[in-house]
Design a protein that fits this description.
The complex is a heterodimer of chains A (389) and B (778). With 389 residues, chain A is mainly beta. Chain A has a single domain, classed as Methylamine Dehydrogenase, Chain H, CATH 2.130.10. Helix content of chain A is 6%, strand content 47%. Chain A is built from three helices and 29 strands. In chain A, the strands form seven sheets. Chain A has a five-stranded mixed sheet with strand order 2-3-4-5-9, with no helix packed on it. A four-stranded antiparallel sheet of chain A has the order 1-29-28-27, with no helix packed on it. In chain A, strand 28 and strand 29 form a beta hairpin. Chain A is globular, with a radius of gyration of 21 Å. The two termini of chain A are 16 Å apart. With 778 residues, chain B is mostly helical. Helix content of chain B is 78%, strand content 0%. Chain B is built from 25 helices and no strands. In chain B, 30% of the residues are buried. The N terminus of chain B is likely disordered. The chains are: A mainly beta (389), B mainly alpha (778). The interface between A and B is medium-sized, with 32 and 30 residues.
Amino acid sequence: MEDDAPVIYGLEFQARALTSQTAESDAIRFLVGTQSLKFDNQIHIIDFDDENNIISKSVLLHQAGEIWHISASPADKAVLSTCYNKTSESRVVTCGAVWSMPPEWESGSHESPDDPHNSHNPQNLELLCHLDNSAHGNASSVLWEPMGDGKRVISLADNHALLWDLTESSTQATISSSATLEGKGQLKFTSGKWSPHHNCTQLATANDTAIRGWDLRTMSQIYCIENAHGQLVRDLDFNPNKQYYLASCGDDCKVKFWDVRNINEPVKSLEEHSHWVWSVRYNHSHDQLVLTGSSDSRVILSNMVSISSEPFGHLVDDDDLSDGEDNHQDEKSKEPLQDSIISTYEEHEDSVYAVEWSSADPWLFASLSYDGRLVINRVPRALKYHILL
Amino acid sequence: MDGDICATDTATTPPDSDPARKRRVHGMLKLYYGLNEEGKTVDQAESMNPCDINGTHFDPEVYLNKLRRECSLGELMDQESCMVKQIRSLDSDMQTLVYENYNKFISATDTIRKMKNDFKKMEDEMDCLSTNMAAITEFSAHISGTLQDQHAQITKLSGVHTLLRKLQFLFELPARLNKCLELQAYSQAVSSHRRARCVLQQYSHMPSFRGIQDDCHAIMDKLAQELRQKFRDGGSSAEDLSECVELLLQLDEPAEELCDKFLSHAQSRLEANLRGLEAETDILEFIDRGCNEFVSSLCLVIASYQELFVNRPQEGNLASKDIPHMAIGKLHAFVDALATCYFSLVERRIQEEKSVGDNSLLVRALDRFHRRLQAVAKLLPGSAVPSQGTEIVVRAARERIKQYLAALQSFYLDSLRDVRQALAAPRLATGKDAPASLPELLSSLSASILNQIKSVLASVHLFTAKDITFSNKPYFKGEFCSQGVRESLVVNFIKFVCQSSRQFCESAGDRGGSTPPALLLLLSRLCLDYETSTITYILTLTDEQFLVQHHSPVTAVAALCGEARGAAQKLLNHYVKVQGLIISQMLRKSVETRDWVNTIEPRNVRAVMKRVVEDTTSIDVQVGLLYEEGVRKAHSSDSSKRTFSVYSGSRQQTRYAPSYAPSAPMDTNLLSNIHKLFSERIDIFSPVEFNKVSVLTGIIKISLKTFLECVRLRTFGRYGLQQIQVDCNYLQMYLWRFVSDENLVHFLLDEIVGSTAHRCLDPAPMEQSVIEVICERG
């Protein structure tokens, strides 16, 4: 069975920010934010037609500044948040804001792929509210409450984690609580992740080489993995199915998997990339699939079966086994499964700063490199059927 | 004829020769009576001649004729007178003979007559004797008939007498036994009692005998008691003991019990011996004492025991047949139990022998231990003791190998610590001279390790020396050499060296600085040397010294070399990573901490860049001390300038030009991508080769890539961009000479400046000439 070729889409600008549209569960849709100091920055809404292998894009203008981080509301398709650089009076400030897409973008501004620069100007994003945190420094990321109603976000600004309540259709944001990282020197959160487990009461953050866990009810630290990586920790992700499992990646070229109940040793450590690893993502449904992107311009898809929630493969109920074919498959799944690198994707020419699984199709993912190239890839079919059957 | 006659004449003529004459006469008489056959045969031989005058066939006619024919007259006359003389003498002889014989006849007749008379008289006396004898016979019969009764009575009486004597013996027995007891003449008492025992047993139904028997029993019990007492008392000599045992056995003491007692008695003594073995003395002394006291007394005990119980002549009435069997069984159990105690003591003592300094003492002690146990083996053929002893020796040898391995390992770690200190110390004292001693440190380290291995091998070799008794055991011939020395000791040590070297990468990996990079470099070279020569040398040495016969599979040299090479590679990679990281950190700090938007116009190369170049140079020197130069791609003489022109020349123009033209932002990416399409992908943290250029290339790659990534995270003002231009130009001037392919440096620096320009709010690049002036001034 031949795998489909990757689909490549080029942006005009350099780009670092990529997210899948979390609230959209039917269409395969990714949002990309560009970085340009000289032109109006854009948000590209990229739809992928899985059957025809065709990409269609829409562009919305993000005039506030170059986008460093983007995330989509889990509840409302039209709502998203960005962290952007604002340059004023030779000062560069990073701010966070919640935006809404104009309602007519879908109907009016569909462009054909062969005509990227259409005549009429793209529409602007509509500002819902600023996550105004001038008192707290530069925002590095904005996190939505996972599977929430889109009313709560956390922003990480320098050494503060701020929990915001969005009210009045997200047009008002008020800080409900905050936590501050104290310590020597200039501490700064580099990234964070809101845990989908424990009723969404936990947050994990990374600063320098340490990973910290926070309890959002009391806004206090619950664990701290000092020296989680030899160098800077770049990204974190929670295992969607195993509540204590956490993946991290960093400048030591490693991807580490942690059980936060035992923070002395990582459960597993991978060293496959030949430069810093910038992004790590668990597949939303099949947590053995782990995606990493690195500044060695590679994307690696790993199969971490041994520490997944399905260490023995997909367990099929006996009732479901109706015919001989199923039986055969069942036997196959009982073979000992081993952790392995499934595939290394080398479509990028520049550093890959973001990778993301599609929220609609668990077998599909996108990766974004600095030169503005977005690549959409699929999990190899053989593996897909192996997991499913 | 004459001659013959003359001869006979001469023979007969001397009348005085009496015996001859007599014989002749005698012979003639015989001849006459025809008695002598001898004479006949002689005659027959002679008588054939008819002329022989003495022969039987004498024919006078022939004789006369012959004479007449042959002889002259004178001769005949002589012959005739001679003949006459002879006839006359013969006649007189004849007369004498007849006379003599007549007298003899007369006397013989008289004798016969006298005898006749005497016989008559004798007959009468004989008759008288026979009548007397008949009378005597009758009389004798009469007497014996009368004495018959009395004889029977006397026989009976004498029987009673002996019985009485026996009875007296019996009655006196208790007293006698008592006396014997008093005098301690035990053996006499026992033999007396033995004699009486059966009788007493037989007549025990009679009260009086019963009494005696009881008395005897009581006394004998007492005696047995006393014997036992004596037996139990430790002091008695072996001979006494054996006598005791002998007597007790005769007293029907159960042999089993005796064996037990004997053994328990011996056991207490031997245990005392064992207790006497103190652990404080040194091992040789300990073993000596053990051998002299315990083992030799054990041998004594075994010998005397066998004498007493096992080899004793079978006395049917005493011993049931399985006594030797039973006794041997007991002896084995006894010896095994004691030997176990002894062995556990010895083993504990051997385990205390931890110092690895002098192996010969231990080997000698083990040898002695083993040798002495052979005595036990001879005495007690089926015993498991000697084999257990051998096992102890084997275990000790194994343990020893482990200890030597541990010692080697700790020696290695100590040497490493020394090297570490040596690396640290001069740096404190004299600054930059430290790396100068790297090759010396390496050679002294590897030499001292090699020496240590050799000395350990020599120590271990003692175990297989020819004069050591256990060296010809199969274990020491085969497994000890191959599995023990080669695998457990040498191979494991080499593996340990590799593994501990790897650990430097693991533990230090996370935080960097804990292991000095110079040490990593040195270890990597050490491992590489091991791969190329040392491992082969050590293993060959071992194989030669121990004549290893590989019965079981052993680690191949190639596998070990592979492991060493792996370790060397890993260490060198790690070295590159650590050094790269140190420089990266400098660059990163310098980029992150500066406000690039509001920086001033560049006047100088930043200090950090100079520092980077300095550090790279010193790394270059350091690596050059241990590794060869390596291959680099050919480059033109003015490399630094040539590359620099890339920035300022046409390429830069094409790259930056689109940014000034807002209408076509796509071109930038297009050009950049086309450029990348034709350049090879660069792996930043990739394995390096074992040479200086490759190492330096690795370090510079890491540093510059970090620089690039950091720049991309910042926003620059006009002067920020210019500063980066200056810095990159400076780096270009100095770094190209270190790397294998200078295009790599070009490419990365190009990327840095390009990315900076992208991240610049006001991208106005500096004039190349100005940059050059600034760089040269710096």
